[in-house]
Amino acid sequence: MNLRILKTATAALAVAVPMAVVPPPGASADGAPEAAQLYVATWGRDSWPGTAEQPFATPERARREVRARTARMTSDIVVNLRAGTYALDSPLRLSEAEGDSGANGHRVVYRAFGYGTPRREPVTLSGGRRISGWRPDGRDAGFWRADVGDLETRQLYVDDRRATPLTAPKVGLPGTPTMTETGYVTDSPAPRSWRDPGDIEAVYRFGYAEGRCGVAGITGDSRQSVITMDAECWRLARKLYGADALKDPGHFENSLSFPHKPGSWYLDRSRPGHHVLLYMPRPGVDMNRASAVAPVLETLVSGTGQPGHPLHDIAFQGITFAHATWLAPSESAGFASAWSMYMRQGKDDMEALTVPGNVAFHTAERITFEGNRFTHLGGQGLEFSKNSSYNTISANVFTDISDGGVLMGVVPPDTKGTNRGNRITDNWIHHTGVDYRASSGIWDTATQDTTIAHNQVHDEPYSGILSGPSEDLRGLMHRNRILNNRVYATNRLLDDGGGIYLRGEQGTSFEDGAVISGNAVTDSKDTEWNIGIYTDDSTNWVSVDRNAAYNYVASIGGCSEVKDGRPIQNVRYRENFWDDAVPPFVKRRDYPGAWPPAEDDCGDPAKLEFTRNTLLNPANPAQACTANPTCAAILTNTGPRPPFRSLLGLR
Fold this sequence. Notes:
Blueprint: H1 10-16, E1 36-40, H2 59-69, E2 77-81, E3 84-87, E4 92-95, E5 108-112, E6 123-126, E7 128-130, E8 135-136, E9 144-149, E10 157-158, E11 161-162, E12 164-165, E13 177-179, E14 183-186, E15 201-206, E16 209-220, E17 225-229, H3 231-241, E18 251-253, E19 264-268, E20 275-279, E21 292-295, E22 301-304, E23 311-317, E24 320-324, E25 337-338, E26 341-345, E27 350-354, E28 357-362, E29 364-370, E30 373-377, E31 380-385, E32 392-394, E33 397-401, E34 406-409, E35 423-425, E36 428-432, E37 442-444, E38 451-453, E39 456-458, E40 465-467, E41 481-483, E42 486-488, E43 497-505, E44 514-517, E45 520-524, E46 530-545, E47 548-552, E48 554-557, E49 569-574, E50 577-578, E51 606-611, E52 614-615, H4 621-627, H5 629-636, H6 642-648
Parallel strand pairs: 1-2, 2-5, 3-6, 4-22, 5-23, 6-24, 12-19, 22-28, 23-29, 24-30, 28-31, 29-32, 30-33, 31-34, 32-35, 33-36, 34-37, 35-38, 36-39, 37-40, 38-41, 39-42, 40-43, 41-44, 42-45, 43-46, 44-46, 45-47, 46-48, 46-49, 47-50, 49-51, 50-52
Antiparallel strand pairs: 7-21, 8-9, 9-20, 10-11, 10-21, 13-14, 14-17, 15-16, 15-18, 16-17, 19-20, 25-26, 26-27
């Protein structure tokens, strides 16, 4: 295991996180004059005028009409999307320079028709291609096949369920493997029989990282197999992880030689331009009737401004964003990764890039996402970066996403930027990180005056809410607030993360630093090392007040990197409830929390303050919390608030 890799009143919190107000159709939130209405329907025509009776057929045509009107806006412009799935041929790209922003104090709203009323209609913006022409495969029993031309994708969905990759039956390589300069040699001939080795990926999982490298080829004889990895990925992975970590892969994926299980799939690229999709149906699925969708677009919606001229005043309401892929891991450089970052050749050597959002906004202000659903996505769900401020992400669902749910701030390779006053509130984020497990439900990388409040985050392979940049970017983070979130069942697969995970300098004083208050972080003991509220690395200037943290491997704590000049310091804990769990391999200090020592490449934290915290009975901390009125009140006040729960589908 690698351990390296204010007293706030309830009333004050309520004031700090006001509830969103959903205006009725046709009206602005401030009661402004009736909005101008445009309409889009799957049965419409782009040659029509975009009225209710003669709607446009595509969101792209509606966007062109919006551009023709924004300069002379006297009210909001609402684009009403009628029920149906809109298969995008290309991303819906919004640009300040092209006139997509709201103007004259008004907004452009892209909305599912009837949003905010019982008449809301289901609307999906899809980047996928429907696959038809299925027939039983003549070679591999149980599989059905469809000719798909030059299709490239890393996901497939059948009857609204994600198909799973074909996976080798054994963890690691058969036999006794030895690592070489180019890959592996093993004393088993079994890998020589693996079909189409150029499609196979090795998956490495350790600590807080998971990466993928492709196989270039497999040779050998009756006594051994020689596995040659993709050279560029192999170089990057060895440099990032170190040779010891790569001695034996976790598992291999993507060969028809691997066990055939219902719900599994494979894309046969052996004939360029004549690719074939293979899928083994789950019980009860009739491929003559099934709906099969392969994502082809990598971006569904993007928004871009320029320095000093941000894209602004646009809203999306009640829309499902679905069926986008992300193809970079299929490149020869693969996916040597940690967190939601992956490595590529840079100017000097390696450069860290970030898994992009399938919906992404750069240099954008006052953009609102409210009541939407992000699902069946191959990258991250929603991204705001490159100097994006005062944006709102409220009452959305993020689920079945290959990487993380929400990404915000200064993202690698950027090291500078101002992202201020953004709000992530009342969202439901769960079961993300499906393909790329070293991801977080929410990652706030380096922002100012950010509010992350009343979200429910659970069933994550790594961390729930991560606040802080990948490297020390001092002077960027100020006055961020993580309030009243319900976080549980994180770190289901990967170690060294937490329910709420902080790192780096969070401010210059307690008044200027981060506040973590009113959160309930519970129930995650799947891995060897994870912490409910994790202050790691060089965490500085943080107030941890009135939280409930229990049933994690450790309730609080972190690795203070003293020897690298990156100590944990200036963290105060006030009026929290915890079971003060500490794993057996970490010596308990004379103050609460799990703080690993020098032999684990850590050191002593400095200037910790503990005031009026309550130890819950370790034998049953959940029962102890609910029996204590103050602790129970914390639980009750976490997660999405009542006006949003029905909108999200929560009971």
